[in-house]
Amino acid sequence: MCLKIKQNTPTLVIIADDLTGALDTSIKFSERGAKTIVINASMSDDLSAYINAGFDVLSINTSTRHSMEKEAYRVVHDIVSFLVSHGIEYIYKKTDSVLRGNIAVEVAALKDAAGVPFIPYVPAYPEMKRTVEDGIMYVAGVPLAGTPLADDPFQKIASSNTSDVFSRSQLSVKLSASSSHIPSEGEGEVIIYDGKTKEDLLETAGVLLGSGIHIFCGCAGFADAVARKLYHKTYKAADIGCSPMLVLCGSVNKVSKNQLDYLSSHGYPRIRLEERELLDPDFISSVRGQGIVGTICGEMKKGNVLVIDTLASSKTINSDGFATAEKVAQGLGRLAFECLDKVDYSVFVIGGDTLLCFLKNFGKLEMEPVCEIRKGVVLSYLHHGGKLMTLMSKSGGFGSVELIAELLNERKINKEDMV
């Protein structure tokens, strides 16, 4: 099956609750030849410029991961209503791969605005070791609630049962549908599919699309299966090159902290900023702030890698709440942006909130996702001041402890090959 593009309107729209989700889902389609763009949008008015702009796939970040439920419902309902009224053929509601966010209310908003009797939900991502068996989510064979990923500073995961995501909603749920199950009206308003392998997800995508179902939700794993069914693969080969790179991390997730500790132990320079420094709106203009700006610019001019992160911990975030974490991310984003007019370099951003705060400095966001250089690590191009900037990104909870070091070592090899 291959998509038939309808005039200039997108054929498929992705709705994600954070920016890394919008990126790592859209990349599944851009790698297969779809002309794709990623934008921020919190209301239908934000979409008008893109609806007839010739894109095959439009990926929207609604920034509703940490919103109040009522606001998350309003945003998704407004956007989906707009998409339906403009004849968008496929709508993919991207959800977090470890069940975080306002999943229940956003699925309800999707169902209500689209006017469909049920929403198929495929939460598994086998390639990232997230599997679903008999409705229970496992991470590398361990029930989700018993893994470090459940200890999220903003939303603790107390249950591994995927149906519990909807326990406080009015939606009826059919749990543990097999990959070959053909859904029908009356069996549940949300139909949750099991998935143990990549082949399971491909079968589910084929069954749903073959049944004429064009509205569904799941994480980036199922998006890959849908993309494979809809588009012929025309993979865009790319690598991170050998340009100077700033690694910017605002995530307090244990996974990302361990990855940076591993980098430090293998000789990569690292600057760790106090939370109070990043919360100070005048920090960059201070003596300490200007000193760090000078260090960043100096290392980038030499063609090096420099890691910048925060000493803020999950304990601090738990006590002070999301507002503090957002301000920390904003401080890191301003610091990185401050240097871009002084020297050219690539940026590797870890953590969806940090990525969003960094990109807000550019004003209107329009990103071109290029490819996934590792599972969960997206390479994109960003236009700034007439220049094309390389940007890599990943969420805080993804990857082995060696992941970032392996990517940076590849960059080092590329650089040595040029000498």
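^ that was protein a. below is b, sequence first then the tokens
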Amino acid sequence: MASKKSSMSNNKASKSSQENGRVGGGMTKSAVERAKKSTNTEALKQEVASELGIQPGKNATAAENGRVGGEMTKKLYEKGKNSK
């Protein structure tokens, strides 16, 4: 019986996490979209790549290009979150 209760509580936690992820993802997306409207994304890409010491493009690895994109998203999110 204890194992059933344990697994049931795990299912509740998982569902709740999934629901929170969807809500958080929507808020993140709207903040990023808001920031993109007032940002030169090409300049931001070059700035972030320079900070990371990466030359983005065809000759960079997928991981390097992904790091640049991830950092861009973080910056856009912060800018969008602060410009409500």
